[in-house]
Design goal:
By secondary structure, the chain is of the alpha/beta class. The protein has eleven helices and eight strands. β6 (184-186), α7 (195-204) and β7 form a beta-alpha-beta unit. The protein is globular.
């Protein structure tokens, strides 16, 4: 039976009723994820959105067979001391999104340093933040459901100081160079428009990975632009759903179809579904190529510790050999 590590699972929230009890939503998420075949889920909890870190982890730990809690943080306000507190609570990683400055701003370095020391991977959103309604797929003028989503957006929309330019894969290059042992995961294959950056950073930075969450558009780009296993190596990619609980199974089925289409080898599929994420979060020991065994050459040593002359035991002295040849030629 295969294992699946889902690196991108958001703590559920009722956006229309933010004060509603989240416990039933967590139970629903657990049931749907397990039914979809997820073995471990990196649950992005608390802090900036929804209930607090303290409340979130209590609910997450009810299902510690599935959930690995990561804390959503704001690097503008999070101190190294707070990162340690989160680790002591039971959080195994961090998540960042919607930052006010570039990810590689030096003022954020104390957070990265603390995470590196505490062995806490960081998942970072990449690119444009989705707005619920994908205009590359549909439009309110021709889709009733899209119109409903647009009406909902009209009621909830507020100004926000966010920019995709602050959340780019090249920022991970800066962070990785300054904190080489910090494990970084960029979401959404780097984000639409950033695939080349993501491939470049994944190619050369040892501890930088990318998840392939993001929905059908990113899935299509992954195939058309040969991102899976070609532009970005199989060992640098991790599955993430980043969707509603009811849609996790659909995402898994679509990626199964894509892997079939791309003829991904079975051992690489195991890496994409499970091993890469499990190794990053310490559930599996990283595996490396075993060095080839070379045949050893025995060396004889004399009683006084010196090596004997080369082949001296097998070859007769040159003078003795010459004498035998001369004797043979004379007929005596």
């Amino acid at each position: 039976m295969r294992k699946i590590f889902d690196i991108h699972v958001h703590f559920p929230r009722n956006w229309e009723k933010p004060d509603a009890d989240p416990a039933p939503l967590v139970e629903n998420l657990y049931e749907k994820a397990v039914a979809a075949g997820v073995t471990k889920a990196n649950l992005l909890c608390g802090g900036r959105f929804g209930i607090s870190h303290e409340e979130s982890i209590k609910l997450a730990q009810r299902h510690d067979d599935l959930f690995l809690p990561s804390a959503m943080i704001d690097p503008e306000t999070t101190t190294p001391e707070r990162v340690r507190e989160l680790r002591d609570m039971g959080y195994v990683g961090l998540k960042m999104i919607g930052v006010l400055r570039d990810y590689d701003c030096p003022d954020y370095f104390p957070v990265y340093e603390a995470a590196e020391k505490l062995n806490m991977p960081i998942l970072l959103h990449m690119g444009v933040i989705g707005g619920g309604l994908d205009y590359s797929i549909t439009h309110p003028r021709r889709d009733e459901q899209a119109l409903a989503m647009y009406r909902r957006w009209e009621q909830m929309a507020q100004p926000r100081n966010m920019s995709a330019m602050r959340m780019r894969p090249f920022h991970l290059d800066t962070i990785a160079n300054n904190f080489p042992r910090l494990r970084l995961i960029g979401a959404h294959l780097g984000g639409t428009g950033n695939y080349d950056e993501a491939a470049s950073v994944a190619r050369w930075r040892h501890n930088v990975y990318f998840d392939f969450s993001g929905g059908v558009t990113i899935e299509r780009h992954a195939v058309e632009r040969r991102l899976i296993g070609h532009e970005i190596g199989f060992e640098k990619l991790i599955f993430g759903s980043d969707t509603a609980p009811e849609r996790i199974a659909d995402h898994i089925r679509r990626w199964d179809t894509i892997f079939d289409l791309l003829d991904v080898p079975d051992d690489c599929r195991e890496r994409l579904w499970w091993l890469n994420g499990a190794e990053v979060y310490g559930l599996e020991t990283p595996s490396w190529m075993k060095p080839l065994k070379r045949k050893s050459t025995a060396v004889r040593v004399t009683s006084n510790g010196a090596k004997p002359a080369k082949d001296s035991a097998r070859r007769p002295p040159k003078r003795a050999a010459k004498a035998r040849r001369q004797s043979s030629s004379s007929g005596t």
